[in-house]
Amino acid sequence: MKITLVKKILADGSPCKKCGDVISRLEDSGQMARIDEVLIADERDPTSAGMILADEHKVNRAPFFVVERDDGKVDIYTVYFKFVKEVLDQKTEEKDELKEILDNNPDLDFL
Asked: What's the CA gap between 35 and 5, in Å, rounded?
């Protein structure tokens, strides 16, 4: 299995805050060692490796993970907690997953 993390550099040259938060979580938990490659999606450069990968997989948010499985299947994760639970086999709190989903989709709301 190969895991690629794509993080974003914003159009003004500043790093993506959420990307920094996710990388901090990965480093603090020791999970960063499981990441095989980190690519940059630089909004100022549409030919940056991360922008090309995002376009290829139709991903419009960062950070995201590309998981290439040994059987050739490729999975894309845009929710950190879902990635941690399903790929890294770590326990997560459902409330954390739901909060991240809501934060990523401001158009969603509770009924």
From this structure: 7
10 Å CB burial of residue 96 (0-12, 13-18, 19+) is middle
- Rounded to whole angstroms, the Cα distance separating 32 from 95 reads 23
* Model pLDDT for residues 58-93, shown as the tens digit of each residue: 999 999 999 999 999 999 999 998 999 899 986 655
Amino acid, res. 39:
L
Residues 76, 77, 79: CA angle, nearest 5 degrees:
160
Q: Using alpha carbons, select from 63, 76, 68, 50 the residue that is nearest to residue 22.
A: 63
Architecture of domain 2-104: 3-Layer(aba) Sandwich (3.40)
Q: What are phi and psi of 25, to 5 degrees?
A: -60, -45
> Cis link prior to 63 (omega < 30° from 0)?
yes
Percent of the chain with pLDDT over 70: 80
- Residue ranges of the domains in the chain? 2-104
